[in-house]
Every structure is written in structure tokens, then in C-alpha cells.
């Protein structure tokens, strides 16, 4: 394999245009990347563990209070007949999220401009993560706190002078 990789590297280096198609033709066609396969296997096994755990009432109650699965992963569960709880929880959360997004839109109207923004102002962050949890690499779906946000000069700030 190392010799083949050197040949590929040499093919890339020889060509002024770096004809990648020729170099790719030299690589073996072994299927998927081992890292991607391991990642997918771990995700599938974790979903299987979750579904097995949902048969336990205390675990199911904790699941309802926790973040839950994103739409992407609920769809990978299939018909959901064996464990309808993830789809039910997601459906409820999507309903709340839809209301929050509508509330943000309503509060942008001139007639209600005096109403302060609430937690619904960050709904678009949560919407992205609820549709596909991989969007923030599994991290929390929330905007940066004011202390970490880019600096905005204020009247009292000496840097604004």
C-alpha cells in the first residue's frame, strides 16, 4: 500500500495540472473509509442501546426530559413501531420550535417592537440542531454568551471613543 501511495503522490507531483483523476485511478477501490465505518457503527449501536433502554419506564421518563434525538436520527429508526417515544418527543419539540420561530417573526413587526425578545430569539440555533444534530458536531445548540460574543462598542465603553 505504501508503494502505491508513493506512486499516487508522484503522479500528483509530476502533473502541472495535478490531474487528480489519474492519481485516484491508482488507488485501490476498497470501499468506505475505516473511520467512517467505525463512526456509523458506533452511531447505530448507540441507537440500538437507546431503543433497548426505552423499554424501561425510568429510562423512558429520563429520555422525555432530556434533549432527545434529532430528526435525522429519528428517521433512521424506521417505522418507529417498536419504539414510538423518540418520534413522539421529536414531534412535540418540533411543535414548540415552530411556535418559537413564529413568535420571533411576530416580534419583528413594527407594532410589537417594544416586546422584549425571550428565549425564542435563539430558536433558529435549536432548529438547526433539531433537524440534524451533526450540525454543531454534537455540541450545544445555543448562541455564545455575551462574554464570548464579538465585541460591540457601547457608550460607556472606553474602546468606543
Main traits of this protein?
161 residues; mainly alpha; flat; disordered C terminus
| Major sheet description | none
Strand content: under 5%
Q: How do the helices and strands follow one another from N- to C-terminus?
A: HHHHHHH
Q: In total, how many beta strands?
A: 0
Q: Give the rounded overall mean pLDDT.
A: 76
Structural class: mainly alpha
What is the number of helices? Answer: 7
State the shape. Answer: flat
For the terminal residues, how far apart are their CA atoms?
62 Å
Tell me the helix content: 40-55%
Catalogue the unreliable spans.
149-161
Rg over alpha carbons:
24 Å
Task: Describe it.
- With 161 residues, this protein is mainly alpha-helical.
- The protein has a domain at 54-136.
- It has seven helices and no strands.
- The chain has helices spanning 2-14, 20-26, 34-53, 57-65, 71-76, 85-107, 123-131.
- α1 packs antiparallel against α2 (20-26) and α6 runs antiparallel to α7.
- It starts with a helix and ends in a 30-residue tail after the last helix.
Amino acid at each position: 500500500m505504501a508503494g502505491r501511495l508513493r506512486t499516487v503522490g508522484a503522479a500528483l507531483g509530476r502533473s502541472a495540472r495535478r490531474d487528480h483523476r489519474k492519481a485516484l485511478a491508482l488507488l485501490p477501490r476498497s470501499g468506505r473509509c475505516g473511520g467512517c465505518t467505525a463512526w456509523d457503527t458506533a452511531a447505530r449501536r448507540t441507537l440500538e442501546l437507546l431503543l433497548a433502554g426505552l423499554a424501561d419506564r425510568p429510562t423512558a421518563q429520563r429520555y422525555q426530559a432530556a434533549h432527545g434525538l434529532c430528526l435525522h436520527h429519528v428517521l433512521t429508526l424506521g417505522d418507529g413501531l417498536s419504539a414510538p417515544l423518540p418520534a413522539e418527543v421529536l414531534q412535540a419539540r418540533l411543535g414548540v420550535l415552530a411556535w418559537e420561530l413564529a413568535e420571533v417573526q411576530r416580534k419583528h413587526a413594527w407594532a410589537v417592537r417594544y416586546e422584549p425578545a425571550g428565549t425564542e430569539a435563539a430558536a433558529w440555533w435549536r432548529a438547526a440542531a433539531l433537524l440534524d444534530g451533526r450540525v454543531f458536531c454534537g455540541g450545544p445548540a445555543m448562541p455564545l454568551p455575551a462574554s464570548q460574543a464579538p465585541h460591540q462598542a457601547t457608550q460607556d465603553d472606553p474602546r468606543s471613543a
